[in-house]
């Protein structure tokens, strides 16, 4: 997994490449912990993400809940079709905001 993080003002964009699984999810979680206090908008660009496991889904759900609790927004954009299928099968397509 490769993470490219871009913060502009109160918005953070995470472009993630590769796979989010049990080995890589903690890395993403630590990257996110560093921005929650300073952003009101969080965006995940998943165009180059090829796989997400339950550990990765948990990280996204936690991020979603944190942003919701602070009246911020979180959206997921450019989702790879294979990954979108995982979101649909798990019901995450009705929890997260997609563009």
Output the keywords:
99 residues, alpha/beta, Transcription Regulator spoIIAA, 3 helices, 5 strands, 36% strand
Task: Please explain how this structure is put together.
The protein has one domain: STAS domain (Transcription Regulator spoIIAA, 2-Layer Sandwich), CATH 3.30.750.24. The mean pLDDT is 96. It has 99 residues and is of the alpha/beta class. Helix content is 35%, strand content 36%. Helix 2 links the parallel strand 3 and strand 4.
Low-confidence stretches: none
Question: How large is the radius of gyration?
Answer: 12 Å
Which whole number gives the mean pLDDT?
A: 96
Residue share in β-strands = 35-45%
Widest sheet, order of strands: 1-2-3-4-5
**SSE order, as H and E?**
EEHEHEHE
Per the principal axes of the C-alpha atoms, what is the gross shape?
Answer: globular
**What is the CATH topology assignment?**
Transcription Regulator spoIIAA
Distance between the ends = 22 Å
- Summed up, the domain count is 1
Question: Biggest β-sheet: count, sense, barrel?
Answer: 5 strands, mixed
Query: Which architecture would the CATH scheme give at its second level?
Result: 2-Layer Sandwich
